[in-house]
Amino acid sequence: SRRQAIVYSLLSGLAEPVGAAVAYVVLLLFLGGRAMPPQVMGATFALVAGIMVYISLDELLPTSRAYGQGHDSLFGLVGGMAVMALSLLVI
Question: pTM to 2 decimals?
Fold first, then answer.
């Protein structure tokens, strides 16, 4: 039903803020209130970016090709990477 789909979507979306709060508390305890070194932040961002690209290439693109929209998905992936690269240059 539509209501059940909305509830499941909401619960799925709540995983990110809850995970972020848990990670924040763990980092506060681990670092003792000190700031996280920039090298650790850079490595963490690189790891997360690599995971996201892997999921996009390994899961989403083959699925979109099965439905005949492979090129559109690839253009979206490349466009998203371009926007991210430009945002890093602007900031």
Answer: 0.52
